[in-house]
Write the structure tokens for this entry.
Amino acid sequence: MIHVDRKACPLTDSALRTVGLTKRYGRLMAVDDLTLEVAAGEVFGFLGPNGAGKSTTIRMLLGLIRPTAGRASVVGVDAADVTRAHQVLAYVPGDVALWPHLTGAEILHLLARIGPGTDLAYQDELIERFVLDPSKPARTYSTGNRQKVALVAAFATRAPLLVLDEPTSGLDPLMEREFRTAVTQARDRGQTVFLSSHQLAEVQAICDRVGILRAGRLVEVASVARLRALQRAEVTVAFTGTPPALSAVPGVETVEAIGDGQLRFFLTGPPAPALSVLAEADVTALTVREPSLEEIFLDYYGAEAAR
Amino acid sequence: MLPALVRKTWRDDRSSLIGWAVGVAAFTGIYTSFYSQFQGAAELKQDALPQGMLDFLGIADMLSPAGYLQATIFSLIGPLLVLMCAITLIARTIARPEEDGGMELMLANPLSRAAFAWQRVAAAGSALTAIAAIPWILLMIVVPWIGMDISLSRVAAASAGLVALVWCFAGIAFLVGAATGKRGAVLTITGGLAVATYMVNAIGGMLDGWHWVRWLSPFHYFIGTDPLHTGWHPVELLTLVLLGAATTTAGVILFDRRDIGV
């Protein structure tokens, strides 16, 4: 039995710690010298484009794959010691696969039996909140429903650490809201949440701190406020007559003319100044695009960071 | 109380377990109960086929009860059926859930990999043993019922061989699946090995100077001792069981040490 009363063992105050964690597949460096510490009770976002090494890192944390170098521990337990380490964590995979002929209820029952301990009353509440029909066989479930089964099972545990790998990729917006509520409740209970994601908005909405992974390297550990500065929109306008004088407007960057009567620029921060300038021009069309995380990263950290 | 993982494995495999059990039972029951009607036809077949072909198919004579059981249940279709069942069921223990990702969720629980592997193989292995024992159970009933003139102990010896053969190939299939995590590898390698060793046993007996190669074939330890005429051969049966146990253990050890799902 492992006691995870945080007050009782101040030495293991970090919920998750990696030191020089590295995984190499042949010549490919999937995760490169990752050193990271997540404090107990924190909601930590693990942000990176697809293929950055987020899942590989998580699989090392779970002891599914062995690090080439370095080590990882969860709540003070070596991650390779899975029988002890998995007493203190619950996991939701990015792409949830379930045993096809078992019903949702049977799978939840199995996970509760072999898991780190489940609050069955809270599990029932979660089933209702996530609108999951547990009586159907898993082979009939959609991606979102399979994800719900894994989320319900994980949130219903009292494990001090929840490891969630892109947990909302198959959920609709309504369920995403339930997910955020469940994360908040987990935090209120003192559980640590390690959330991997490639969506800036999701991480901004629920995390305290964010680690940014790019091409296997941790490029930054930042507060969410810092992250906001990363967010920018790509605006394209078409106009007739005089071009709007955007160059000197605060928040506007890299204005360029693309063809006849068209401008493109990037907008950071409050859009009001740019909008008032545009209002004066004779704008015939306007499109705003949120760049993908990959584009933001490439722009912000440059191609160098990829090396 | 059995571990939850074992019970849920049976439950997940329930429909295919029932299917295989019904199939093997129907095959055994129908072939055996046709014994008396088949005698005339068997005579014809025996005359029509050259001796070499009969030897290869393992049907030395189809007229005696031992020859008939050998030809129908124990030489080709019976082993083929139970081995197909063994290979597909064992492919579900590790390779399939690893390929489709269903294993990750299980392995994130406080359960060692070795415990996971042993519980999966225990569930599949026990179900498989029950299916492979169906011919045994049915023959013990049908043979005296239709009045086949053969000692039940010898029929039991051959039937036990079928179970031991299944254990041997189940172990090999498990080893391949546990080591590679690939369902295709389990099916092709184990299936290929089954066909190749069947041929080795069949052809090795027919070529002068090549009899020794039969010792390499699990089929030799199952049927090469001619249990329907000679009865029990504990050493040969034990060889198959030990081979199954050794490959299973090796599979668990390899599974415990490798990276999962890459």
User: Anything to note?
Assistant: The mean pLDDT of chain B is 90.
